[in-house]
Amino acid sequence: MCWRTPPREYRSGQCDQPSPVQVAKHRAHPRESGHVGQAVELRRFGRGEVAAQLAAILGSEPSPAVAEEVFDRSGGNAYLVERSVAIGKTVRGTPERSAVLLRRGRVLEGVTLGWNVAGIVVLAVAATAARSVALAGFGLDSLIEIGASTVVLWELSGSGEGRQRRALRLIGGAFLALAVYLSVQSVLVLVTGYRPGHSVLGISWTAVTAAAMFALAAGKARTGKVLGNPVLITEGRVTLVDGILAVAVLAGLVLNAAAGWWWADPLAALVIVFYGLREAREIFLGGH
User: What angle do CA 101, 75, 3 make, to 5 degrees?
Assistant: First the structure.
């Protein structure tokens, strides 16, 4: 690549003039370059130039996450960017790595789906025994999470902007449904002053579920970011909300059992209502 050649037109070894790649290679391997002892200046590429160089090498636009990762690894050194692609360190540049990440995304969604299916059964038993509105509502939340996981599994089986937009809207609908459910439940409990009974099974399940959902949400966020898949990232936030809700229900059950604070659960649920509405607004009005 000549110094005067735009990064978009980048081709390795394009001309005889010293280029950022050649200069960087000289710095890294002076004996191989045949210019031992010569002092050279290297202009570092910016983020946009690294992304353009990647697009020229790979033949397609890299995702922002991949471009950022390569920029961080190379420090804007054009030669190191080229070497990163050559040795397979980029994510979108290697089909094998991309396939591994897609499988990881499907596994995460499959685990979430199975966990929530089991949760509906456990929560139904616990809610019936304790006459707990919070536990019954948490079971409904599990149904919403099952719907969101099913949407993402469907989306990961194919590709295309149209499918991603439809999947995102369905997840946005799940956020809205969750917010409506929590609003109605919270107001009902606060107005009636309904006090659920104690439930060891409910406390145990919500505690384990909170830990599991936070772990799954983190895994989906990381995998979705590297893949550049907005649907997996957004559904990861649904899973995060599920974990927060589990903590709120757990706190309500524990405070009700230990101190008789029956109002703690509906107040915590109202915070999640705000979060769910904000996420739904971002999906429907944020240009997705």
Answer: 115
| Residues in CB range of 286: below 8 A, 6 or more apart | none
Percent of the chain with pLDDT over 90: 15
Asked if residue 141 and residue 224 are part of one domain, the reply reads yes
Amino acid, single-letter form, for residue 283: I
Q: Which two tokens stand for residue 134?
A: 């919070």
Same domain, 116 and 249: yes
Number of domains into which the chain is organized: 2
The per-residue pLDDT for 161 is: 61
Residue 1 lies in a domain: no
Among the candidates 39, 65, 86, a domain finishes at 86
CA 175 – CA 265 distance, rounded (Å): 19
Q: CB neighbours of 132 closer than 8 A, spacing ≥ 6?
A: 126, 196, 197, 199, 202, 253
155 pLDDT higher than 60? yes
Q: How far apart are CA 226 and CA 221, in angstroms?
A: 9
Q: Residues 172, 242: one domain?
A: yes
CA distance 248 to 205: 13
In the DSSP assignment, the letter for residue 90 is -
User: In the 8-state DSSP scheme, what is residue 247?
Assistant: H
Alpha-carbon separation of residue 245 from 39, 74, 255 (angstroms): 61, 41, 15
Q: What share of the chain is helix, strand, coil (3-state, %, to 5)?
A: 75, 0, 25
For the stretch 71-102, what's the b/e string if a residue is b when 16 or more beta carbons lie within 10 angstroms of its beta carbon? beebebbbbbbbbbbeeebbbbbeeebbeebb
**When comparing pLDDT for 167 and 47, which is higher?**
47
CA distance 224 to 217: 10
* pLDDT attached to residue 20: 47
